[in-house]
Each structure stands twice: as structure tokens, then as C-alpha cells.
Design goal:
Blueprint lengths: L1 H24 L7 H21 L14 H22 L5 H17 L5 H7 L7 H30 L12 H4 L11 H30 L11 H45 L6
Helix pairs in contact: 1-2, 1-3, 3-4, 3-6, 3-9, 4-6, 5-6, 5-8, 6-9, 8-9
Length: 279
């Protein structure tokens, strides 16, 4: 009980720090920002504490299958921290901000080819956007895309090499998939495989669809202003994090489906050895 509450409190503090990182690192913040940042950090931390302090799951998937959620949090925090450091370097340059800016510029220019996600993000900007804004958006897109790709490669390594999620632990489907109802919708294995394919497909398409949707919606509503550093940080973070998170979820569901299928094969083989007909 004490260990669970302490772990939930630590996670809540980290989530609150994640929300506050751009404000803490960016100079020259607006006067009303502290109240909004503190409110958002407290709300996110409270929801995290309630979720992880409870013995029974509610909405967070793979809660008892580390390091899935830890890897996603690290990906999100790293993206926000690096983008905040790059934005800080425009007014208060340092060795760290210069290195991050150079890295992001190299990656952004390398990925900025026709029909690439980075090129679509750049084309999402209005036609009168300045060259400095285009360069900052390209740099932010390069950094966020690199972090998301690194996280996905690490997760594939965890599955293929380290045997996630069954290495040295028992995987409980009910605890790790609290929103999945195995009693409805047909065979569990088919539903997991279908959901996995949908998540992976959407994850690959979202980096291309989001800029297209934003560009199309700009004719109806005022487009978002990426000239604001905070808007740029959170927009580029969401643009890279959401697709990567969906792909990781699809890979995780596919892995769970493989475990269930393997369990079924073993059960049927044992039944045949005992002279029984599997149902």
C-alpha cells in the first residue's frame, strides 16, 4: 500500500513537472501564465495520482506492464524539454541550446523532402510566414520526429529481444487493458489483431493527415500561430507523440494477441495429448 501510494505520488510530480517545463525554461512569460500552468499541472498530477494509487485499473492501459508507459512518458518529456531548450536559445543562447538547434536543423533539413511529414508541416504555415519561422518549425519537427522514432525503435527492441511483457512477470490482460471488454464483439484474438492494425495504420497516417487537416481548416477558422514558442512546442510535440504512441499501442496489442494465440496452441496441444477434443 505505501509503495503504491509513493509510486503514484512520484508519477504525479513528474507529470506536473512535464506540464510546467516549457514555462519554467522559457524566458519572458506572460503574466497570467503561472496560474494556468499551475492549474493544469495540478489537475494532470491529481488524475495521475488517482489512477496509480488505486489497486484496480480505470483508464490507463498497460499499467502493470513496464516500461511501456515509462517509455512513452520519457518520449514526451524529452521532446518537450528539447523543444523548450531550442526556443530558449533564440533569446538566451547557450552551448546546450546551440547543440540542440544544430541537431534539429540537420535532422529537419534531412527529412524535409517532397511529401515527407516535415515538408507537410512546413507547408502548413501561411504563405507570408517569415524565413525564421519556417526554420524554427522545421527544426522543431526534426527534433520531435527523431525522438518519436527513437522511442518506437526502443519499444520494438523490448518486444523482439527482451520479450516484453512476459519477461520475469505474468501479464494480466484485465489489469493492463481495463477498457477492453473480452465478452463482447466476437473472438478476443480477432478484435485485438484488428485494433492493432487500426492503431498502426493511423499512427503512420497521422503525421501526414494532421498538417493537411490544419491547412484545410485554415480556410474556415483562424489558423494556429506557431510563432508563439509555447504553441510551437506543444503543437510539434502532439504532432510527433500521438502517432508514435498509437503505433506503440498497436504493437503492444499485437504482442498481446500473439501471447493469447500461443496460449491457445499450448492448451489445444495439451488437450490432444490427454485424448480430449478442444472446444
Amino acid at each position: 500500500m505505501i509503495a503504491r501510494v509513493a509510486g503514484a505520488f512520484t508519477r504525479a510530480m513528474l507529470v506536473g513537472l512535464l506540464i510546467a517545463t516549457p514555462y519554467l525554461m522559457m524566458p519572458g512569460n506572460v503574466a497570467d501564465a503561472p496560474q494556468m500552468v499551475v492549474l493544469a499541472a495540478l489537475l494532470a498530477g491529481l488524475l495521475t495520482f488517482i489512477e496509480y494509487s488505486s489497486h484496480f485499473p480505470s483508464i490507463v492501459e498497460f499499467r502493470d506492464a513496464p516500461p511501456f508507459n515509462r517509455l512513452r512518458f520519457l518520449m514526451l518529456f524529452t521532446t518537450i524539454f528539447l523543444l523548450s531548450a531550442v526556443s530558449r536559445g533564440t533569446s538566451e543562447p547557450s552551448v546546450l541550446t546551440g547543440a540542440m538547434t544544430s541537431l534539429g536543423t540537420i535532422i529537419g533539413n534531412a527529412i524535409d523532402f517532397p511529401f515527407s511529414p516535415v515538408r507537410l508541416v512546413v507547408l502548413m504555415l501561411p504563405e507570408n510566414a517569415s524565413a525564421a519561422l519556417v526554420a524554427s518549425v522545421r527544426t522543431a519537427a526534426g527534433i520531435s520526429y527523431l525522438v518519436s522514432l527513437t522511442a518506437m525503435v526502443c519499444f520494438v527492441f523490448l518486444i523482439r529481444v527482451l520479450g516484453w511483457p512476459t519477461r520475469n512477470r505474468v501479464f494480466n490482460v484485465w489489469v493492463n487493458l481495463p477498457l477492453f471488454d473480452p465478452t463482447t464483439g466476437g473472438d478476443v484474438l480477432d478484435r485485438l489483431q484488428r485494433d492493432a492494425r487500426i492503431n498502426i495504420a493511423l499512427g503512420f497516417l497521422l503525421p501526414f493527415l494532421i498538417p493537411a487537416v490544419v491547412k484545410a481548416a485554415s480556410f474556415l477558422v483562424d489558423p494556429i500561430t506557431l510563432a508563439n514558442p509555447h504553441t510551437l512546442i506543444w503543437t510539434m510535440t502532439a504532432w510527433a507523440f500521438l502517432p508514435a504512441s498509437m503505433i506503440m499501442r498497436g504493437l503492444a496489442l499485437h504482442r498481446v494477441a500473439d501471447l493469447i494465440e500461443e496460449k491457445r496452441r499450448r492448451t489445444y496441444a495439451e488437450a490432444e495429448e490427454d485424448g480430449l477434443q478442444p472446444a
